[in-house]
């Protein structure tokens, strides 16, 4: 018999014994363990014994002890010095009955929970315990006496046990000592029995401080000395609060059982609060994972204290929780906003209940109508307060259930149709009902609002990429904080269904996900194309998504809320194990999360916020790398529609109406005809003959030019959204293309799409080829039409439509001129908006936009220096070239060969003085190509290659060019990399302690939409256009410079090659940590001398 078989046999024997004599040999630890607090051995027999509340840390999760009959465990603690003497008694053991069985070693289990360096706190002999009892007569409390308390009611509503006239003293211990550390450990060994998941504190950490409550009485010796018994304690940790405050957090608080239900708990907490309130550096007081009993005690004390503040007077409670209440509670009582809101709701509820009982139910008013009206008013206010309390309680309950994974909720079954028919069928199919739009709610019809989910105050943190969000998570893991975190990502990142993820495009992924969730696909209903000919075509199967299961989704959501899953990859991996959808688990967890990480496009775009359920009201929004937030918003709200899209969309709508016109409801038919008229106007305008290659129209001018003044674009967009038209038309679009494939011959009965496909060889229009695989994944043109119609819903003065005509490829392009208006929507909705970044300067344009939006008084600016020392960075504004003449590089001189030659010569002389690596940034790929050609022409490149290896960034994917450059830069001679500011390398590279040179050239970007934005800003504020140009240029430059220094020990040299960098208005647009290290040499030789001086003594790679 091997070891595993023997262990299995032993377990089977144990199970048999448990089944036959469970009452004899299996005991619940909570039933047999008792704890006594002894002051003297003579009185030990009269001391009351108390049952513990938890035993799982000693005897396992089931809290059972195996192998004893009639077991009794008494833990005797000295009531002051807290030494332990355990007594174990029993009548029989299982080993006496079954020789192969063995009982649990109770004493060993108790010892296992004692720190290894404090094993002497427990004695196993009664004589040793007698000695400890005699010694504790000389026990003196540690720390500073801060208050004397008398037992009694903290408030009249507390029911107290009779304790006579006992007195208590509260001591504060802020500094550690070996004697106190040992004493604290002995006390905390008791906490394992009364505080769930209690742990020993790290006594070596100076940020811990403690409060100890002792019963004080006259000593029996009669010499006037005092004897003490421990009554309770509280342990707190000082967390840092920016900039120079602390936030104490209560980690443990406990009253010993003999002193409970005497009003001491409220008094202890109240005195602790008052002591903390006296410290100016304390911001507020919080608690770590508070138990329900402590929450009740804290709310009770907070209610009593807040009732003494004038801001919480009864007359002020009717107006709800106000900012004055929050400020008063924080400044005077150090109570957080959440705790103060609980107090307000509870006091309001008590007041209304009292008002209801006293002024309504006991009213004998003869005017029964007035009395009844007053009663209804009070009942309404009382019910609202009650609902508020219920929401708070539900949030706490839901989070508690998520932590323990035991949430139970009602299952709501969705009614389904009898048949799983297709949403769109071909014309010869019998079932076509699901191709029709859902019944549309007209203007005077009101939809019933669903019940709002539970919500908590949260922080939204938005950044450009998911990799940056992952970096933030890594840093959070290094702290003590453990907020509930959710990362809002798309289906492309979170989806684990291979049937969905194999699709390349987001719109196809979303559509396939919806199909599988609805389970509407029926095998054989759709015409299947040959996979080899059409590999990207959507194919439906009869299966539903195996990951879309409510139980698994909820279980995964619970783990996310409990804090066990934070990173996106952790969520995805766990979702595969649970067979759950991480995308919908994330959305389910979002309302109760405290920190939501999300990319820019989710939070800055109104439609995306609505789709994700992002509610900024009352919450904090942080925008990382916010230097380009206005440009990002402008790109998110831009839209364009091509002549190809309009032609295709018009054909789709006409064919759809021809198929389903008789089945559409009147209101749906009305909006479909209006949509067709709009698309027809678009198509006609783009295809009409015109000598104008480009035109710019205002929104109102565009509508007039197309003859659409009587069309309400808002209603059309709302109709398309409410009926899910774009997705359904995409299905119709795919089927129409299929129909064209199955019947390639031209006939009179062809559909509009089929005619369009047949005519593509004879008519030179940009249409979609059925044979092209990309056409199978091409989105429905209704998507682009809808996006453009949404863009037309902007304010007329905030946008322009650019009409571009290049042969047969014509298009409308909407440009948002005033992204600040969209930013203000976000700023005004959020409780606070924080714009952060390492290179926020120049921020003048952003501040001006916010000021014009009405939040000028609410803007606060803060900047700090870099982590490096001054000697680790030197920036030189080089205003003179190698021939010692003034150096000015403008857009007009960029094609001057002599100017480019001077730049090359200057660069070569600088490279000679720099060890290791150099990075030269240009304003564009074209100018960089022109520069490289000049190097080749004048044989300068050969000189450069003799000194350093040369790398050049390409327009496409940079591949491993950065890794190869870094490897080459580590040698003594080093390497030089030519790159583009604002390109991939300037955004993604990361200097790892080597030396780099950054050469910047300023060039304004001349594009039509930039000129439109400039003209718009000039019309709003004098000089606004020039400010925009400078901001665009300097943001790119500052972003590139910021890549030079990434870590504490990095050092770098930065060259700004242009005389304009020496102007004060340009220097002011550099970040402060760069501008204060900027020098302006009077000549080029001076720049070379400063370079040599900087690198002297610096570490170089051998």
What is the general shape?
Answer: globular
What is the SS-derived class? alpha/beta
Mean pLDDT: 78
Query: How many strands, which pairing sense, and closed or not: the largest β-sheet?
Result: 7 strands, parallel
Unreliable spans: 155-162, 406-436, 444-448, 520-542, 741-776, 989-1006
Determine the CATH topology of the largest domain.
Rossmann fold
Share of helix, binned: 40-55%
Total tally of structural domains: 6
CATH architecture assignment name of the largest domain: 3-Layer(aba) Sandwich
Write the layout of secondary structure elements.
Elements lengths: L2 H23 E3 H4 E6 L17 H4 L4 E3 L1 E2 L2 E7 L5 E6 L2 E2 H4 L8 H7 L13 H10 L8 E7 L16 E7 L4 H17 L13 E11 L7 E16 L3 E11 L8 H14 L8 E2 L4 H15 L7 H4 L5 H11 L3 H25 L6 H37 L54 E5 L2 H12 L7 E3 L3 H4 L3 H4 L4 H13 L31 H12 L6 H11 L3 H8 L5 E5 H5 L1 H7 L7 E4 L5 H8 L2 E4 H18 L5 H22 L6 E5 H8 L6 H10 L2 H18 L9 H7 L14 H4 L4 H11 L7 E8 L2 E8 L2 H11 L2 E4 L8 H12 L17 E6 L18 H16 L4 E6 L2 H13 L2 H8 L1 E4 L8 H9 L5 E6 L3 H5 L8 E4 L7 H13 L3 H19 L9 E6 L6 H4 L4 H4 L2 E2 L4 H12 L7
Parallel strand pairs: 2-5, 12-13, 14-16, 14-17, 15-16, 17-22, 23-28, 23-29, 24-26, 24-27, 25-26, 27-28
Antiparallel strand pairs: 1-3, 4-7, 5-6, 8-9, 9-10, 10-11, 11-12, 18-21, 19-20, 20-21
Helix pairs in contact: 8-9, 9-12, 11-12, 12-13, 13-18, 18-19, 18-20, 23-32, 24-25, 24-31, 28-31, 32-33, 34-35, 34-36, 39-40
């Amino acid at each position: 018999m091997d070891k595993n078989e023997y262990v299995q046999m032993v377990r089977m024997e144990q199970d048999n014994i448990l089944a036959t004599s469970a009452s004899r040999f299996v005991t619940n630890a909570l039933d047999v363990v008792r704890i006594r607090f002894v002051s003297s051995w003579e009185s030990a027999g009269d001391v009351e014994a108390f049952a513990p509340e938890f035993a799982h840390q000693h005897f396992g999760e089931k809290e059972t002890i195996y192998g004893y009959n009639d077991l009794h465990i008494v833990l005797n603690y000295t009531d002051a010095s807290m030494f332990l003497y355990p007594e174990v008694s029993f009548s029989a053991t299982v080993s006496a009955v079954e020789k192969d069985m063995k009982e649990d070693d109770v004493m060993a289990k108790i010892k296992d929970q004692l720190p290894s360096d404090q094993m002497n706190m427990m004695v196993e002999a009664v004589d040793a315990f007698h000695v400890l009892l005699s010694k504790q007569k000389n026990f003196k409390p540690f720390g500073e006496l801060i208050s004397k308390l008398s037992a009694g009611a903290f408030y009249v509503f507390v029911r107290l046990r009779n304790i006579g006239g006992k007195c208590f003293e509260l001591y504060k211990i802020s500094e550690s000592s070996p004697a106190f550390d040992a004493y604290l450990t002995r006390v905390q060994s008791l906490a394992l029995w009364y505080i769930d998941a209690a742990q020993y504190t790290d006594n070596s950490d100076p940020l811990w401080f403690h409060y100890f409550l002792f019963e004080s009485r006259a000593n029996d010796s009669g010499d006037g000395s005092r004897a003490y018994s421990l009554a309770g304690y509280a342990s707190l940790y000082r967390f840092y609060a920016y900039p120079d405050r602390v936030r104490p957090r209560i980690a443990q608080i406990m009253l010993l059982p003999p002193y409970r239900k005497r009003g001491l708990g409220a008094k202890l907490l109240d005195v602790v609060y008052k002591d903390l309130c006296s410290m100016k550096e304390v911001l507020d007081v919080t608690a770590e994972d508070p138990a329900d009993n402590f929450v009740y005690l804290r709310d009770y004390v907070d209610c009593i204290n807040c009732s003494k503040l004038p801001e919480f007077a009864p007359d002020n409670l009717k107006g709800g929780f106000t900012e004055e209440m929050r400020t008063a509670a924080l400044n005077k009582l150090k109570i957080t906003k959440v705790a103060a809101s609980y107090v307000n709701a509870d006091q309001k509820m008590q007041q209304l209940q009292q008002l209801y009982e006293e002024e309504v139910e006991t009213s004998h008013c003869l005017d029964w109508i007035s009395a009844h009206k007053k009663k209804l008013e009070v009942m309404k206010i009382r019910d609202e307060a009650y609902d508020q309390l219920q929401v708070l309680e539900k949030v706490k309950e839901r989070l508690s259930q998520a932590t323990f994974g035991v949430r139970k909720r009602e299952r709501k079954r969705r009614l389904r149709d009898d048949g799983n028919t297709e949403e769109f069928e071909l014309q010869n199919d019998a079932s076509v009902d699901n191709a029709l739009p859902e019944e549309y709610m007209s203007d005077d019809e009101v939809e019933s609002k669903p019940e709002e989910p539970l919500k908590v105050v949260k922080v939204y943190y938005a950044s450009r990429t998911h990799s940056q969000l992952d970096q933030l998570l890594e840093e959070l893991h290094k702290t003590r904080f453990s907020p509930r975190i959710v990362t809002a990502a798309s289906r492309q990142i979170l989806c684990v269904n291979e049937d969905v993820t194999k699709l390349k495009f987001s719109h196809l992924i979303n559509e396939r996900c919806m199909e599988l969730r609805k389970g509407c696909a029926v095998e054989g209903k759709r015409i299947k194309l040959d996979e080899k000919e059409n590999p990207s075509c959507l194919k439906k199967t009869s299966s539903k998504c195996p990951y879309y299961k409510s139980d698994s989704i909820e279980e995964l959501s619970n783990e996310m809320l409990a804090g066990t899953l934070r990173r996106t990859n952790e969520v995805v991996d766990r979702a595969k194990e649970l067979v759950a959808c991480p995308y919908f688990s994330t959305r389910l967890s979002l309302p109760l999360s405290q920190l939501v990480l999300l990319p820019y496009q989710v939070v800055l775009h109104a439609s995306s916020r609505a789709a994700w359920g992002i509610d900024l009201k009352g919450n904090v929004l942080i925008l990382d790398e916010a230097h380009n937030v206005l440009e990002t918003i402008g790109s998110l709200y831009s839209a364009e529609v091509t002549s190809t899209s309009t032609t295709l969309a018009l054909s789709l709508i006409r064919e759809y109406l021809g198929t389903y016109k008789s089945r559409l409801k009147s209101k749906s038919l009305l909006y479909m005809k209006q949509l067709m008229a709009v698309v027809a106007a678009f198509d006609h305008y783009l295809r009409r003959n015109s000598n104008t290659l480009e035109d710019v129209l205002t929104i109102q001018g565009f509508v007039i030019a197309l003859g659409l003044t009587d069309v309400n674009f808002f209603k059309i967009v709302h109709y398309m959204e409410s009926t899910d038209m774009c997705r359904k038309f995409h299905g119709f679009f795919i089927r129409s293309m299929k129909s064209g494939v199955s019947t390639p011959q031209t006939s009179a009965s062809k559909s509009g799409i089929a005619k369009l496909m047949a005519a593509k060889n004879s008519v030179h229009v940009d249409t979609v080829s059925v044979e092209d695989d990309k056409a199978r994944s091409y989105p429905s043109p209704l998507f682009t039409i809808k996006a453009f119609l949404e863009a037309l819903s902007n304010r007329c003065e905030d946008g322009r439509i650019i009409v571009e005509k290049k042969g047969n490829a014509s298009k409308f392009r909407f440009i948002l001129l005033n992204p600040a208006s969209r930013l203000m929507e976000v700023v005004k909705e959020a409780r606070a908006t924080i714009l952060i970044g390492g290179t926020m300067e120049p921020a003048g344009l952003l501040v001006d936009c916010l000021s014009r939006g009405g939040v000028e008084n609410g803007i606060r600016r803060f900047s700090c220096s870099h982590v490096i020392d001054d000697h680790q960075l030197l920036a030189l504004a080089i205003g003179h070239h190698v021939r010692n003449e003034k150096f000015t590089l403008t857009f007009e001189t960029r094609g001057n060969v002599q100017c480019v030659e001077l730049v090359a010569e200057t660069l070569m002389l600088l490279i000679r003085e720099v060890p290791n690596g150099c990075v030269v940034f240009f304003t564009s790929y074209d100018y960089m190509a022109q520069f490289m050609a000049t190097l080749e022409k004048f044989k300068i490149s050969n000189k450069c290659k003799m000194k350093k290896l040369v790398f050049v960034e390409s327009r496409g994917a940079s591949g491993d060019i950065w890794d190869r450059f870094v490897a080459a830069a580590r040698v003594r001679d080093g390497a030089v990399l030519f790159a583009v500011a604002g390109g991939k390398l300037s955004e993604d590279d990361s200097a790892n302690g080597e030396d780099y040179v950054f050469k910047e050239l300023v060039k304004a970007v001349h594009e039509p939409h930039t000129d439109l934005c400039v003209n718009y800003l000039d019309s709003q504020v004098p000089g606004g256009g020039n400010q925009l140009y400078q901001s665009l240029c300097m943001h790119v430059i500052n972003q590139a410079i910021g890549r030079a220094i990434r870590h504490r020990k990095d050092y770098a040299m930065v060259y700004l090659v242009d005389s304009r960098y020496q102007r004060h208005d340009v220097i002011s647009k550099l970040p402060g940590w760069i501008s204060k290290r900027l020098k302006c040499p009077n000549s080029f030789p001076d720049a070379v001398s400063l370079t040599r001086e900087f690198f002297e003594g610096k570490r170089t790679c051998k």
